[in-house]
TrEMBL record:
Its cofactor is FAD; (6R)-5,10-methylene-5,6,7,8-tetrahydrofolate. It comes from Kordiimonas pumila. Its EC number is 4.1.99.3. The lineage of its organism: Bacteria, Pseudomonadati, Pseudomonadota, Alphaproteobacteria, Kordiimonadales. Belongs to the DNA photolyase family. This is Cryptochrome/photolyase family protein.
Amino acid sequence: MNNALRLADHPALAAACATSGPVIPLYVYDNTHDNAPGAASRWWLLQSLSKLDASLKKLGSGLVVRRGTVADVVMDVCTETGACGVYMTRGYSEHDKKTEEYLHDFAEKNGLTCKRYAGRLLLEPEQVVSKSGTPYSVFTPFWKQALSLIDNAVPLPVPQKIQAPVSWPATTSIGALGLEPKPASWAEPIAAEWQVGEEAAIERLDFFVDATMDEYQTARDIPGVDGTSKISPYLAFGEISPRQIWHKVSMHLGDATKSTAALAYLRELGWRDFSYHQLFYNPEMRIKPLKAKFLHFPWHEGTSPAVKAWQKGMTGFPIVDAGMRQLWQTGWMHNRVRMIVGSFLVKDLLWHWHEGETWFWDTLVDADIASNAASWQWVAGCGADASPYFRIFNPVTQGEKFDPAGAYIRSFVPELCDLPNEWIHKPFDAPLEVLAVAGITLGHTYPAPLVDRKKARASALAALASIKD
Ligand SMILES: Cc1cc2nc3c(=O)[nH]c(=O)nc-3n(C[C@H](O)[C@H](O)[C@H](O)COP(=O)(O)OP(=O)(O)OC[C@H]3O[C@@H](n4cnc5c(N)ncnc54)[C@H](O)[C@@H]3O)c2cc1C
């Protein structure tokens, strides 16, 4: 059940149930490899496994949970139970590919069935290739091709019955996996923000499509309003499938008033597929720039007080600080602000995008190996179809444009609450008497700016010039 923690639209589960034999739903927690879940994902996983187990129990089944490397555990469970087949949902990282190959060989040698099913993307990476058979590195032609291939198949229902084995193999308790946050208080605001699990995913999608989607095109860029679907963590854990979302949203494509919004939204799901497309064809995407010349970019690496200030939302640039605090407090950050804070780290601070990718990996509840790495490479200018490196986001003008009344800043940076709109994005330029009335002393109640942006911009462009071919 790894990365497909749901019962509906689950091709591997449906196929296993269709054999009419007993089925052992298995989740293997493996924290030994580079893509092991970060702290926020572990918190989500803890809730998600419990929800899935409860749903399975309602069907007379249950979730067997074990710790170890996926291939070893699956082989052990097969040997212990005399299982005659392995049914799994496909993954796209190098680690997933190796696990699948290993299990395939094991099954072949032992006369077992081994079947691998899609279920995490709209289309498989091999399906969306150019006429000459090559993968895409630019989104627009990728999406055009994808749109011509996607059908609107009705998602698979929850299996009516999952036959239990005569005797269940041993299971580790979910609580013993060590997924609890430390300290526990860190996750309290995150828990207040989210409902986890398959049922919550469907509720969230229904709410978005019925109540919010019409305004998506304009609202999606405004961090101060709830204008996006916030479906990303459910997708990251496979609590909902992209095909379920496609099906629900595409019901509105025939409706003239809704279809533009629906298409704009589906296009974002296309970016998710495109990220996996890139990961599949560039297995080292988490560590290696897709544009080779960026291997020599003189980014700073490691930790430093500047990186710590960025992580804590203490840079002195309000929109950056609001974003980083939203991430820490809720495990999620608005997409527009992810781009702004990312640009600030890699261009204003000249810090390596790995630092940002790793921090996001640890703190996002929607941490996703493909979307995170592809997006960080996009921000850093070294990815496929990336924002050019010389396009440096100005956090002040970005804030003024997308959060003009400072609603977003005020909710996450309360110490700036009483600043008038004119200065909320640039307290460092505000007259002293305005700061005094708002109760702000720069460097004391709110940080002075971490960098001189003019100098930072010049350094970033000089760094870029140093790697020009
Ligand atoms: C630096 C950076 C890091 C990111 N890291 C992640 C990550 O770890 N996990 C993750 O799911 N997304 C990541 N994103 C993409 C995007 O920010 C989130 O998918 C989006 O904010 C999730 O909120 P939502 O579900 O409300 O999105 P909506 O706007 O409602 O979009 C619906 C879905 O489309 C997909 N989507 C939207 N935008 C993108 C995008 N730019 N790239 C890929 N898929 C997209 C997501 O699955 C999202 O849930 C990152 C973006 C940046 C700039």
